[in-house]
Specification:
Number of domains: 1
Strand content: under 5%
Membrane topology: Multi-pass membrane protein
CATH superfamily: Rhodopsin 7-helix transmembrane proteins
Number of helices: 11
CATH topology: Rhopdopsin 7-helix transmembrane proteins
Function: Putative odorant or sperm cell receptor.
Number of strands: 3
Pfam families: 7tm_4
Distance between the termini: 77 Å
Strand order of the largest sheet: 2-1-3
Protein name: Olfactory receptor family 4 subfamily D member 5
Largest sheet: 3 strands, mixed
CATH architecture: Up-down Bundle
Organism: Equus asinus (Donkey)
Length: about 325
């Protein structure tokens, strides 16, 4: 059959997480609370890092960027999902689906590259503390951040460019709560084996940069172990704490991404649960990972809270 004779699908029905109204309402309550916590936690970190001059360092600059990206990443899917949970089986236009897919992979790609930069930053801080300010200066940090944005943009453009090639003539039911490559490519009414291979390769290049993030951990442990007889400085202790938090965050991000994207695009029972994990749960937990054991952030948070109380005090009277 000639693909030119296909009638192009103009929209997709998002099947979401469940067709049972009671479950959808329960999901709405749970995910509304999670999205509120994600928004509050990540924007609070951005405000703290921006307002406290003591946190104007490379490590906290990268942490602030990660929090901003987490807020944007969850906002790409969560608000629409919350509305759809109450609306039933909503329809998203083909253009709207591609737009959501672009920004989803754009922000997600930036996060992956940024996590790699953060791992390198912690490795330098622990292994070469005396040369840290020379190696990770503002220029280098800015260039690495810009490279992360460029890398995320290229990754996302490639995904969109590949997904618009095959014709979509039906069915039009997308078995997910947001538009993503694995579910969308299966609705194409032509052979997509080559496209799937290209997409898996593209996603694999991104998600398998994770080993580079993990590889810094043994080096840091070896570096600190070689200085075991000496007490760690405050900066080294802070770096180790941040490194442990970073490994936990990377695990929660890369493992689900490898499960979803670095394999053939087939449907498995755990797919939606894993999608919820990296779109909703991980962005909510990141602020806790990076603040609960970080004394500098906690002190800055208390300082910001006291400042707000001082500003609101006269207004109450």
């Amino acid at each position: 059959v000639n693909p030119a004779n296909y009638s192009q699908v103009t929209g997709f029905v998002l099947l979401g997480l469940s067709q049972v109204w009671e479950l959808r309402f329960l999901f709405f309550i749970v995910f509304s609370v999670m999205y509120l916590m994600t928004t509050t936690g990540n924007l609070l970190i951005v405000a703290i890092v921006t307002s406290d001059p003591r946190l104007h360092t490379t490590m906290y600059f990268l942490l602030g960027n990660l929090s901003l990206l987490d807020f944007c990443y969850s906002s790409i899917t969560a608000p629409r999902m919350l509305v759809d949970l109450l609306a039933g089986n909503p329809i998203i236009s083909f253009g709207g689906c591609l737009t959501q897919l672009f920004f989803f992979h754009f922000i997600g790609g930036i996060k992956v590259f940024l996590l790699t930069v953060m791992a390198y930053d912690r490795y330098v801080a622990i292994s070469q503390p005396l040369r840290y300010m020379l190696i990770m200066n503002q220029t280098v940090c800015g260039l690495l951040m810009a490279a992360s944005w460029v890398g995320g943009f290229i990754h996302s453009i490639v995904q969109v460019r590949l997904i618009i090639q095959p014709p979509f003539c039906g069915p039009d039911k997308l078995d997910n709560f947001h538009c993503d490559v694995p579910q969308l490519i299966k609705l194409a009414c032509t052979d997509t084996s080559v496209l799937e291979l290209l997409m898996v390769s593209n996603n694999g290049l991104i998600v398998f940069s994770g080993p580079d993030v993990f590889s810094g951990a043994p080096r840091i442990l070896h570096s600190t172990a070689s200085h075991a007889p000496k007490p760690f400085s405050g900066g080294q202790q802070q770096g180790l704490s941040t490194c442990a938090s970073h490994i936990a965050v990377v695990t929660l991000i890369f493992v689900p991404c490898i499960y979803i994207y670095a394999r053939p695009f087939q449907t498995f029972p755990m797919d939606k649960l894993v999608s919820v994990l990296y779109t909703m749960v991980t962005p909510m937990l990141n602020p806790a990972f990076y603040t609960l054991r970080n004394k500098e952030v906690i002190m800055a948070m208390k300082k910001l809270w006291r400042r707000q109380k001082d500003l609101l005090g006269p207004l109450k009277h």
